[in-house]
Structures are given as structure tokens and as C-alpha cells.
Amino acid sequence: MPNRDFHVLDWKLPAYLFPEDANLSDIHIPSEAGGEIEIGSQDIHWNKGNGIAGYDINRYATIKDLSKNKLINLNLAEWCNSIQGIVRAATN
Questions:
Q1: Alpha carbon distances (Å) from 44 to 20, 50, 52
Q2: Tens of pLDDT along 51-86?
Q3: Which residues contact 57 (CB under 8 A, 6 or more apart)?
Q4: What does pTM read for this prediction?
Q5: Are residues 50 and 73 located together in one domain of the fold?
Q6: Alpha-carbon distance 54 to 62, whole Å?
Q7: 27 burial via Cβ count (<10 Å: 0-12, 13-18, 19+)
Q8: pLDDT per residue over 9-32, tens digit each?
Q9: Which of 26, 36, 48, 55 could cross-link to 42 by cystine, CB 3.0-4.6 Å?
């Protein structure tokens, strides 16, 4: 991959993307990562906590590292969707 001269802390989402009462955290660096060079996360809350969004940014050394992690995340997302479907079915 081409050398990139940026850091995850440079990529905070702008407030204008969210409702006027939104509270945007700074990007924070989690204590653990999964193969990334850097990883950052930002939380956004609005409507007295009834609206919430999360933003994650990951920086990888190689396309191979990115591809491997993306596949893991896709499998995890499928698993979460399956669990949500089971919970919905059980509560209806």
C-alpha cells in the first residue's frame, strides 16, 4: 500500500452531519486492536441519548491485513444479525 501520512485522530466527524443537539466525543484510541496500525472510535449522542451513532476508523499496513480483518467483521456482522432475528422472533 502507498505510504499514508495521516493518523486516525485526524478524522473526527464534523458536527454538521448530525442534529443540532448532538454531542460528539473526540476520537479515542481503544486499548486493544486487531492487527491495525491504528484504530480510533468516536461516539455521537443526540435527543437526550435516544439517538446514538458510533464511528470507527482503522488504519492497516497492508491490503492483506485489511482484507483479513474485513472478512472477520463481515462474519461477525452476519452473526449479530442472526442473533437479532432470533431475539425479535422470541419477543413477538
A1: 12, 11, 6
A2: 888 888 888 777 777 666 665 555 555 655 555 555
A3: 8, 11, 27, 39, 40, 41
A4: 0.61
A5: no
A6: 25
A7: buried
A8: 888 889 998 899 999 999 988 766
A9: 55
Enumerate residues 6+ apart whose C-beta is below 8 A from 60.
Answer: 1, 35, 36, 37, 66, 69
The whole domain housing 11 covers: 1-61
d(CA 14, CA 17): 6
Contact 12, 21 (CB under 8 A): no
Residue type, 22: A
Instruction: Tell me the residue length of the chain.
Output: 92
Number of domains in the chain: 2
Residues 43 and 4 in one domain: yes
Asked whether residue 89 falls in the same domain as residue 73, the answer is yes
Same structural domain, 56 and 73 = no
